[in-house]
Amino acid sequence: MDLTFSDEQEELRSVVRAFLRDVSPQEEVRRLMETPSGHDAAVWTKMGAQLGLQGLAVPEDLGGAGAGPLEVGIVAEEMGRTLFGAPFLSTCVLAVQAILAAGDPGCSRELLPGIACGVTTATVAFSEPGRPWDAPAEHTAVRRADGHWLLDGVKELVLDGAHADLVLVTARGEQGVGLYAVSGDAAGLTRTPTRTLDPTRKLARLEFSATPAHPVGRGDAGTRILARVLDHASTMLAAEAVGVAQHLLGTTVAHVKDRVQFGRPIGAFQAVQHACAHMYVEVESARAAAHHALWAAAADSPDLPLAAGLAKAYCTDAAMRVATEAVQLLGGIGVTWEHPAHLYFRRAKSSQLLFGSTDLHRDALVRRLAEPAGA
Fold first, then answer.
1. How confident is the model at residue 345 (pLDDT cuts 50, 70, 90)?
2. Which residues form the Acyl-CoA dehydrogenase/oxidase C-terminal domain (predicted)?
3. Burial level of 247, CB count in 10 A (0-12/13-18/19+)?
């Protein structure tokens, strides 16, 4: 496994970083987090038209770039640096991976070109009240009536669910758990924004009442599709967490160089130096874990579930530890509303919980490692 990025991938990183620096300064992050959708539609369109980021993982014959998890992970990491407000994780990771995993050529031709060009935003609704993130659908059912598929049930904690143009829903039918496509303006669909700790990441509760839907793939493939989606989502969330931690490290180091106490910069004190060194180790260790998971995803390795779970657990925990240390070293300014440290702290905490807590992922790792070889 080659653990280095190519010149083209590093160029992608540079281009994305420059783009985000222009469109996602802190004042814009704060403005957008107070809006219902959490993102600027014009910037999303520009991102698709000029950079083609929405279509990175979409096959070329369907309007995309035909790239893979490495390139998408680079973008996710850079977006974590700026807390970029856009439905990238929900649309370009969850939805794209769900459609590709379904193996339905007709649905791919229908759904993926709109995503690739930045016209369609999408998400996957799979979490149900009181059930683990990775549990198959039990309280959302699909039925056939008068030649139409209809959905009934509730999904919660749906990423960008209140405003997505397309919602892919896991639901249980006669064949088992399947994946179904629902238009964002479908009859019988009620979407309620969920207030959370992290205002830069929008979640919603979706209620379906005889809501028209269309099957995506086989009617019994939902559990397999969901497992694939969560592996990729965990990997990208890990990459994003690296970006969050890297930004906090840079901000903190700059602060301790400039902040003078007792006649000298506080960065000259050994205790502060040790704290910054620990933050650096956390960031680089998280980077290694995230990049390993990205390469596993790019190689479609059978070890992806292990790599993704490990990366998600470690990287989000590392981002939280770095965020905590950053607030401590920033001092009084670190706990003010005006300083962005609390927004990165909130993002780190929400990432720990999104798509399953770190404890859930570590428990899953233990179970997988305990399985007999070849099981």
1. very high
2. 221-369
3. buried
